[in-house]
């Protein structure tokens, strides 16, 4: 017998994440002092947990943060209004029709 769990479902469980589990609220991980707060690693199982945690987890988080910071530093990103965003469940979570955004290069400030 094999037992599988759904990462999609685990990431949206009210029991784990609270009543606003379906809302996109990145500020939930920022304290009143502006410091990032860390939840227990077992809540976020994409990289597994315990003694079998993915060895590349920390470097992948660092790399993702660096890429996103670089993109947001160099470009303005605006989500196009009035589009329906619905999930497409696959090996990774996708959106059925993508997410349409406008991307503009940021103006370089004169030094």
UniProtKB/TrEMBL annotation:
Pfam families given in the database record: p450
InterPro entries xref list: Cyt_P450, Cyt_P450_CS, Cyt_P450_sf
Name the record gives this protein: Alkane hydroxylase MAH1-like protein
Molecular function, one GO term: iron ion binding
Keywords for this protein: Heme, Iron, Metal-binding, Monooxygenase, Oxidoreductase
Organism from which the protein derives: Cinnamomum micranthum f. kanehirae
Family, per entry: Belongs to the cytochrome P450 family.
Domain of life: Eukaryota
Keyword Cytoplasm in annotation: no
GO biological process, one term: lipid metabolic process
Keyword flag Heme: yes
